[in-house]
Amino acid sequence: MIAWVLLFCAGTVEIVFALSLKLNEGFTRLWPSLLTLVSGAGSFYLLMLAIKTLPLGTAYAVWTGMGAVGVALIGMIFFKESAEIMRLISIALVIVGIVGLKLTHID
Asked: Which residues of 42-75 are buried (b: 16+ CB within 10 A; e: fewer)?
């Protein structure tokens, strides 16, 4: 169960990493650039800890899926990105995939 908590934390930090890429404006802004470096390293480190126990394919798919869903939702809320129905359905399908991977993994 600890590996899943680490993976959830890695996915959450991955969202911060991806958002900081937009905010650092090509590494021209100091604090967002530092956030990018720290969150990127932190996310990879937590993922590395999680894959000591979890299968690599499952962990990587969940990690990237969490990042994709989180950034897409935040983009819609804060950056006024499209929230058309097909986009929402696609995000829902990624969430179903993440949940399916968790449910098919026996701890």
From this structure: bbeebbebbbeebeeebbebbbebbbbbbbbebb
* Predicted TM-score (pTM) of this structure: 0.92
Q: Which domain holds residue 7?
A: 2-104
104: amino acid identity, one letter: T
pLDDT in tens, 14-30: 999 999 999 999 999 99
15 in Cβ contact with 74 (< 8 Å) = yes
- The count of domains in the chain is 1
Provide the mean pLDDT of the chain. Answer: 96
Buried b / exposed e over 84-99, threshold 16 CB at 10 Å, is: eeeeeeebeebeeebe
